[in-house]
């Protein structure tokens, strides 16, 4: 196993653990602020997508969703609800991976306004997809009543709060330490570009 693979696996583990912690924390947030903030569990997964691309983030999201689903649903008749309610919405993090290349290139070139645009656009697309899958598509498929109605203000408040928190946290990470976004052996930059980053 080479160093890049070890780094990817370790970062994936970090993202899964942090995602689980945020999934628990989101339940407490929802008890103080109207809405549902379970989407905050995507924060480390979106970071992973921007760092390595969609495939690793999707696999990590799958594992995170299964673990969250098992803890909430149990093992009795768990498969359809867990896959639809917990796993499928989290797979939205794959959209963030579409912005990995240009997030890293613009960050490396210190074109910060473009970096911020990529981060917030990726976070918005991912959050919007997550919210509509979890609170519209899934209840429709399971013939259940949604916890948040998409025409209600709590739905849109939750979406905006989740989006802003995720975007701001990743933005701060990118600006304070670009290496948190750009791994040592990234596939999105040439060796020359990577060397200049590491020498800064």
Automatic annotation (TrEMBL):
Gene3D superfamilies in UniProt: 1.10.1760.20
Pfam families from the UniProt entry: Thia_YuaJ (PF09515)
Signal peptide span: none
InterPro entries assigned to the protein according to its UniProt record, in alphabetical order: Thia_Transptr_ThiT
GO molecular function: thiamine transmembrane transporter activity
Domain of life: Bacteria
TM helices/strands, residue ranges: 12-33, 45-67, 115-133, 153-174
Keywords in alphabetical order: Membrane, Transmembrane, Transmembrane helix
GO cellular component terms given for this protein: plasma membrane
UniProt name for this protein: Energy-coupled thiamine transporter ThiT
Protein species of origin: Ruoffia halotolerans
